[in-house]
Amino acid sequence: MPELPEVETFKRYLDKTSLKQLIKKIIVTDHRILKIDESFLKESLLGKKFESSIRHGKYLLVFLNPRYLVMHFGMTGDLEYYNKKDDPPKYSKVIFQFNTDFNLAYISTRMFGKLDIVDSIEEFIKNKKLGLDAYKMGFEDFKGAVEKRTAIIKNAFLNQSFIAGVGNIYSDEILFRSKIHPKTKINSLHEGKIKELFTNIKDVLKFGIEKQGDLSTYPNQFLIPHRKLEERCPACNTEITRFEIGGRHGFFCPKCQKEEN
DNA sequence: AGCGATGTTCGCCG
DNA sequence: TCGGCGAACATCGC
Known about the structure:
With 261 residues, this protein is an alpha+beta fold.
C-alpha cells in the first residue's frame, strides 16, 4: 500500500485502536521482517504500552518509553486490530497481543516492510537521511530543499532525502496538477512555480488522506485513474505517456506537462 | 506462466 | 558528493 496518505491512515488507525494497552506477548512469525534481534524487540516492548505515534514520511514511529518502534510498510504492508478469538490476518508477520481481547497484527505480504527499534526520532531521521515530511513541511523549508537539489524532479520526489513521503503514484499526480514535466530539472523552477508545487503537494496528500489512501475511486479529473497505457488526459484528451525512470514507471500528459515553465 | 508492483538500498559510473 | 541506473530483495495477483 503505502505512500504518505496510507501511512497516515495506519497512524490514525493505530492511534484509535491500539494505544494504552499493556503488551503482554509478541509473536514473530517471520524474522526477516525484523531489523533487530527478536530479544531486543521484546525487551523494548513487553510490559509496556504504545503511548503515542508520529509519522515521518512513509515511516510510523510508535513511542513506548523510552524507545520507539519503527514501522515501515514496503509496498504491501498493513495493520489490523482484531479480536483474539479470530484467526490472525493472512500474511501477519508480527502479532502484538494486548492485555485485552485484542491483538494488533503487522502484515507484510511481500516482505518489503521492516520493523526496527530506535532511541529517538531525530536520530532515526538523521540516520535514514530523511528529508522534511511532505505533509508537515512549511513553504520556506520546502523552497530551501528545492534550491539545494539539481536532480530531475521526478527522481527528487522518489528520493526520500529530498522530501519524505511522496512515492511513485502521488508524485505523478502532483506533477500533473502542477503542469510540470517529470524530467524538469528541479533547480530550474522559479519562485511562483515552487509555490504552486508546494500547494499541490499539500492538496494531493490531503485528498489522499481523506480517501484513506484508497486509489480505486479517484475522480476522473485526477491523473491517478489514468496511469496506464492507452489512457487519455482528463484535461485535454491527449494520450498519456508512460516513461521509465529509476526502474519505475511514471505517467504524464505530454501536452499539459511541458518541459519549460 | 510470466510480468509487474504504492519501496529501499547498494554498487557502479560519470 | 551528487545524480542516475540497474539490480536485488520477496512474493502474490493479474
